[in-house]
Write a structure and sequence with these properties.
Order of helices and strands: HHEEEEEHEHEEEEHEEEEEHEHEHEEH
Strand content: 25-35%
Number of strands: 19
Oligomer: single chain
Helix content: 25-40%
Radius of gyration: 23 Å
Strand order of the largest sheet: 1-2-6-3-7-18-8-17
Distance between the termini: 36 Å
Length: 353
Amino acid sequence: MTSLNLAGDLVDLAQALVDTPSESGDEAALADAVECALRACAHLTVDRIGNSVVARTNADRGERVIIGGHLDTVPSAGNLPSRLDGELLHGLGACDMKGGVAVALRLAATLTAPVRDVTYVFYECEEVSSDRNGLNQIAAARPDLLQADLAILMEPSDAGVEAGCQGILNAEITVRGERAHTARSWMGINAAHRAAAVLQRLDDHTTERVAIDGLEYREGLNSVALRAGISENIVPDTCVITVNLRFAPNRSAEEAEAYLRGLFPEYEVEVTEVVQGALPSLGQGPVASLVEFLGVVPRPKLGWTDVARFAALGTPALNYGPGDPTLAHTTGEYVPVWQMRECEAQLSAWLHG
């Protein structure tokens, strides 16, 4: 089994995490190593749910903070093992988000008496469908483990604060025609050709820019897939266009669906998935306190993260972790060493009080 030295150097720990493969659904080996290392910390209570590990301090401090990170990565792209190039740690998951997990593990081991109680959550299957997400499994089995006054997701944010997150809506727009033999195509109506009107409407559409708590969330509406036809000699009678809407967190899921349907009132629209975003909550006490301490200017999270899951539980949350989020899931992803050390130092100081 992989051995993790939580008392050693932060970079060595991050390399050990990267070098332990943990693609979504295959996190057991890394979860075993994390659980074993945390159980050696006398000041922590440790629980294991599936391949997720939760460790807590229990000193009745009156305020509880969650520091969380997912253990899984996207599939390998030939970017293992890790490689340290000066101040950059390269490798699968280095940016998203084993650099952040390394910081959280170091904090869990070294902060034996924080001024706030802390729950450290290391969970599985964040990079795949929502029903497999480790946070959902924890919430179903032990909802008490996710109760807190603030949640910090150590998603890559360039060691700055990215607040809130966008919602996601996926839908299929169906265009109808009439089937015919391609040798007599004038006898049918080509649904794929008719779909051009939908695609043009998408291309002409100007998405919203929404200001919330001084942050600008830029929405996005795009066609991401198109399917039509069953044979090379048949004029297709249906064409289905898959669209993805990233909507600002001030919209509810219902409002986002109504918005999309209003853009295509004459077409069949089937919503296949909708996930609520999260408001930035910058005016709420715990969030404001941490942002002020960090001395950073918050940015909007243009994307979806598990801050939305905590928001749904009534817990304000933000993204704060090492790594450039635009490098996530890329072949050449890396995490700057200085950002890992910065995040550890700042959170350690805040939790020391």
